[in-house]
Glutamate receptor, ionotropic kainate 1
Amino acid sequence: MMSEYHNYFITSLDLHTVDLEDFQYGGTNITGFKLVDEDNPGYTDVLETWRNPVLRATGKEPTLTTEAALLYDATRLFSRALTDLDRGQKIHIKSLSCDTEEPWPHGISLINYMRMINVKGLTGDIKFDHHGFRSDFKLKVLELTNDGLRESGEWNIHTGLNMTTNYSRANEEIIQSLKNKTLLATTLINAPYTMLKENHEELEGNEKYEGYCIDLLKEISKILGFRFLIKEVDDHKYGEKNDQGEWNGMIKELID
């Protein structure tokens, strides 16, 4: 379940807080999103403020969950709106009963201020549309690599998904992942691509085969540093799909 042939999309926005060291070397494709903006100058300040002696003693760096960041941003937005409202009109604070049906006289004004102002928070720019929903926010795309989680793109409501992956680096990582691996090469006898040598009955393994595909595979393996094992497909077919949508031949072996 955790190999290079498995792909996982994590819907939680707290993937960046999870220790994935046990999985980052297995080649499993793990992708997720992040709302917290760690590039915000205030992010480090908040972590330092919240750093406690227990975390410092263990040597672990504190992480900020999405819920905590949203609560922090909500508090800042409320404080900013209340301050701006107080500048525009004098707010008289008095004790209120939870049982009263009479609303706070400044409530509507405060909500309108919260919709109008723009605050740079730990989850990006905090803006609201006329319905009161969060707008103009961004989600960072995260991918797990051998070096840990890496930002590989960004999604926003205006332009959608924009991938910023360095494909040269990604290609190099793929090449490195092939080093010293043994790959199973499925084939069928078809001259001049794959043929049995005249004395194949006296030989074993890859030595029984010759042809263009075999020579090409040998050269590629030398360049990329992997080993391979040639296996003839059992039914000697390239692959056809039956009425049930199932494949046979080489395609079936590739799928399986």
Summary: The mean pLDDT is 87.
